[in-house]
Automatic annotation (TrEMBL):
The gene is leuB. GO terms for biological process: L-leucine biosynthetic process. This is 3-isopropylmalate dehydrogenase. Its cofactor is Mg(2+); Mn(2+). Catalyzes the oxidation of 3-carboxy-2-hydroxy-4-methylpentanoate (3-isopropylmalate) to 3-carboxy-4-methyl-2-oxopentanoate. The product decarboxylates to 4-methyl-2 oxopentanoate. GO terms for cellular component: cytosol.
């Protein structure tokens, strides 16, 4: 049997640093668990632009289409701010999402016990928090036409279009209901049906998918602004939240902060099953390229390592190994290991990116 294939795209900023720690984890699985991957590596984002004049080459795009899973670090940086829109680092990421048709973006927000004190919210509001945001990732205002900056009389007008077809809503709704069945069986759908026609359709279609296919799952609807408020007020009321591309972008950043640090949260972007039964998939941390701390060994590699854990679970049917890795991270945090982002106002001495990776490897060793 051939090994499952993995394309690693470290990207920009702290991407390469956190990905180096994931490579340690991958090596550990090979050495200690006899779990092997065929790993290839490529460029995405600004680093690809620097070499090829494009944030993603056709060759890398083809490679991404051919592997079992893609693992991405982060893209972007201030040195690329003035580039033409069409070659900005983010376009590489968006092209991957769109062409691989990764319509369901899973963003868990889980609060590790050891970090409950560190949230900006009160401890009892976040302790034990475990919610999953399912963000539609390939449509909506990110991709709708018409878009652009146009001349209108004496001035310019900037246009983006929120657009959803019924089938686009249906498939992401199904992803959310399927996930809910394996969790606490609750879905809350968020839109702005009070002001947007696309929101009216969203609500109708989610309700229909529920009534015809998932009547056993508890479904509620909320306006996305109220949803943001409820996420801060009492986030534990939620299990799975399903929402569109733009609201999902905002709500997932807010949810991430509930858990204490953006440096902790992974994501999985899943599409339709491939011929081998695995879903098309890309895994990436929710955090960005953090150019301010790039290259200094300060970044927290946990979000990227947890993204690899999601790959084990959702692409490779190794839920037990994913749980082992998550438990190792939990242990390291409980033992007090902290990168800079995990130190409260009172400070303390942070460990480096590499030290955090090593600590997790040691905890994996201890799990055997
Ligand atoms: C995210 C990011 C991206 C997005 C950017 C980098 C294009 O914010 O993954 O949440 O807006 O989707
Ligand atoms: Mg975002």
């Amino acid at each position: 049997m051939t090994n499952p294939s993995l394309l690693i795209l470290p990207g920009d900023g702290i991407g390469p640093e956190v990905m180096a720690e994931v490579r340690k984890i991958i090596a550990w699985y090979g050495d200690k668990r006899d779990v092997h991957f065929d790993v290839s590596e490529g460029l995405v984002g600004g680093c690809s632009y620097d070499v090829h004049g494009t944030p993603l080459t056709d060759e890398t795009m083809e490679l991404a289409q051919s592997v079992d899973a893609v693992l991405l670090g982060a893209v972007g940086g201030p040195q690329y701010d003035n580039l033409d829109f069409s070659v900005k680092p983010e376009r590489g990421l968006l092209r991957l999402r769109k062409e691989m048709d990764l319509y369901a973006n899973l963003r868990p927000a889980q609060c590790f016990d050891a970090l409950a004190d560190f949230s900006s919210l009160k401890k009892d509001v976040v302790a034990g928090l475990d919610i999953m945001i399912v963000r539609e990732l390939t449509s909506g205002i990110y991709f709708g036409e018409p878009r652009g900056i146009f001349k209108e009389g004496n001035e310019r007008v900037g246009i983006n279009t929120q657009r959803y077809t019924e089938s686009e809503i249906e498939r992401v709704a199904r992803s959310a209901f399927e996930l809910a069945r394996r969790r606490n069986n609750k879905v809350c759908s968020m839109e702005k049906a009070n002001v947007m026609e696309s929101g009216i359709l969203w609500r109708e279609v989610v309700q229909r998918v529920h009534d015809t296919e998932y009547p056993d799952v508890q479904l509620s609807h909320m306006y996305a602004d109220a949803g943001a408020m409820q996420l801060c007020r009492w986030p534990k009321q939620f299990d799975v939240i399903v929402t569109d591309n733009l609201f999902g972008d905002l709500l997932s950043d807010a949810a991430a902060m509930l858990t204490g640090s953006l440096g902790m949260l992974p994501s999985a972007s899943l599409g339709a099953p491939m011929a081998n039964g695995r879903p098309k998939a890309m895994y990436e941390p929710v955090h960005g390229s953090a150019p301010d701390i790039a290259g200094q060994g300060k970044a927290n590699p946990i979000a990227c390592i947890l993204s690899f854990a999601m790959a084990l679970r959702y692409s490779f049917d190794m839920g037990d190994e994913a749980t082992r890795l998550e438990a190792a991270i939990e242990k390291v945090l409980a033992d007090g290991a902290r990168t800079g982002d995990l130190l409260g106002p009172e400070g303390g001495s942070p460990i480096s990116t590499a030290q955090m990776g090593d600590a997790i490897v040691a905890a994996l060793d201890a799990s055997l």
